[in-house]
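Let us practice reading a record.
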Amino acid sequence: MQDTATTATIDFDALDAMFDDGMEYALAAHDRPDAEEWPSAPGWSSEGFVIDSLDLASWASRRIDTAEEMKLEQTEWRAREIARIEHAFTRNVARHADTIAFLTSSLEVWHRARYALDKKKTIDLPGGRLQIRKSVQTIQILDEVAAIAALKADEATRPIVRVEESIIMSALKAALAQGEAVLGEEGAESETPGMVAHLTTTGERVDWAIWTPPGDSVKFASASAKAAKSSAKTAKKAAKSAGADDEEA
């Protein structure tokens, strides 16, 4: 297809400024984490925007690459903030948990001693109600893997183990043959396009599955996204290798 636009007709500076305004506005929103709803970012509108030249396609690819870099930066920033908040939360909550555990234990000792004398199960205190309740006997599983193995080994206890069923999609493809196009009411095109599925063993049509139509898809992989994915794979392999070395040692 011949390009219908040229470099001279495209104001790339204006396009960059338009996208940058939206990005800067989004970054500034970090200062408003309590906002229920952010107004639309100024300066950007998709109306009338069409890529119709190699120059514009090249510009778009660079903008996507830049956006991928910023997306990665925000993901890393989010991880750091979550780790920081989790650390502070764990530290501060632990202090309160220690106070609760110590004083609750002390109240229990005191209440049991009083209950031995006057048999009064409930006492209302300024901070809440203190009471003795009869506990229900329960079963505690110490080793679930061993328990399941033992229960499955005995035919009488085998039904106690819950089995979750799922379909093996690779095997299902071999079991279903493609048929004619799926039609809706009165021969109209179905809202769910595809081909009828038949069991290969009997030829019977099934109403619980269809073959989806084949098609093409366009995917753009930015350089930044590919680099980040490659780095993640390398880090994962390195961590796995280090773990194997530790086991051997």
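A brief commentary: The first helix runs from residue 12 to 28.
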